Amino acid sequence: MLYLALFLSFFKIGLFGFGGGLAILSLIQMEVESHGWMSQQEFVDIVAVSQVTPGPIGINCATYVGYTAAGFWGSVLTTTAIVLPSLIIMLSICKAYFWLSHKFQGNPYYEQTLRMLRFTVIGLVASAALMLIKPTNFIDATSWIIFAVVAALTILPNFAKNKVTEVISHPILLIVLAGVAGYFIYA
Amino acid sequence: MFFQLFWTYLKIGTFTLGGGYAMLPLIQREVVDRQGWIDEEEFLNMIALAQAAPGLIAVNSAIFIGWRVGGWRGVCGAVLGAVLPSFLIILAIAMVFQDWKEQPAVEAAFKGIRPAVVALIAAPLFKMAKSAKISWITALIPIAAALLIWLGHVNPVWVILATIVLTLCSIWLFSYRSSK
């Protein structure tokens, strides 16, 4: 039963995960929390680990949740489940590639739906962040200072794009620095 | 072809940090510039398709290129190559993470990391809103979506389905009226 639930959840995440890694996070969060496979804190920790390890966040989360919930075969199952919808949909698209590209380009139903989904996806990412603003993740005022500094540094290249801002806004560097700061403040 | 695609994607999967979007320039360099498997224009079409289709962008692109270059075998090689590095690395971390977490030093570090992760999720919203050319009126869509999920605990799947259905209905209604 656990295997079936894991498979269905991650198949659903793969099927409705529009808009890449960050947008998929809110789907994963909802699934793992409603099934009790992971606590909110664990979820944030695994997102942090995903940011500093290679590969797509969706695969990283799927593998981790599968392993913690049901061991090695659980992780094989969840990773397969999140990839499966892509395989079905993308292969259909590939098989009908020339037909589709003529049929869909400029089709108002298709183009408008994609445009609207882009707006919705922004909401999904926002909800993923909002759901994580909780006392378990923000334990004191220092947490908010770390949040503000990291957010500011990440947005910086939008205003001043150069080599320096590019380097200091890198997510891996920011996570490592936040970890070092956490060690000196809380240890 | 299986091994060539497997090897190419394994390299890309092992050395790109930061998920699907970060992989795209590397995929382009390997697949278009170095191997010449597909041309620039087809690559751009591929990105558009990989983004429009649901699922992980890195996996979608691996499927498309695998299919174009090597058929079924190509798809298997590219997808395995793209997925395997993250799978193995996370598996190794998951096996030791439960014990590490109890260490006071790791615990302290994660207390600093958690708010940073929330900021890393929230900050790209700014750029996303800008590139989607959001206006005061269209901003209502993401705001409504975020509130439904955050406070209403609505599953994001329903929000996505509602977006698709409402958009299709509104275009249909609009074109039905104007054709009358």
Short recap of the structure:
The complex is a heterodimer of chains A (about 190) and B (about 180). Chain A is an all-alpha fold and about 190 residues long.
Task: Looking at this protein, list some descriptive labels.
heterodimer, A: 187 residues, mainly alpha, 9 helices, 81% helix, 0% strand, B: 180 residues
Q: What is the approximate shape of chain A?
A: globular
Helical fraction of chain B: over 70%
- How would a textbook summarize the main sheet of chain A? none
What average pLDDT do the residues of chain B reach? Answer: 86
How is the main sheet of chain B built? Answer: none
> Oligomeric state of the chains?
heterodimer
Tally of strands of chain A = 0
Helix content of chain A: over 70%
SS element count, helices of chain A: 9
Q: Distance between termini of chain A?
A: 41 Å
Nearest-angstrom radius of gyration of chain A? 19 Å
User: Which secondary-structure class do the elements of chain A indicate?
Assistant: mainly alpha
Explained architecture:
- The complex is a heterodimer of chains A (187) and B (180).
- With 187 residues, chain A is an all-alpha fold.
- Chain A has helices at 2-16, 21-34, 40-52, 57-95, 97-104, 108-132, 141-155, 163-168, 171-186.
- In chain A, helix 1 packs antiparallel against helix 2 (21-34), helix 2 (21-34) crosses helix 4 (57-95) and helix 2 packs across helix 6.
- Chain A is globular.
- Chain B is an all-alpha fold and 180 residues long.
- Helices cover 82% and strands 0% of the residues of chain B.
- Chain B is built from 8 helices and no strands.
- In chain B, helix 1 packs across helix 4 and helix 3 crosses helix 4.
- Chain B is flat, with a radius of gyration of 21 Å.
- The relative contact order of chain B is 0.08.
- The model of chain B has no long low-confidence stretch (mean pLDDT 86).
- Chains A and B meet through helix 1, helix 2, helix 3, helix 4 and helix 6 of A and helix 1, helix 2, helix 3, helix 4 and helix 5 of B.
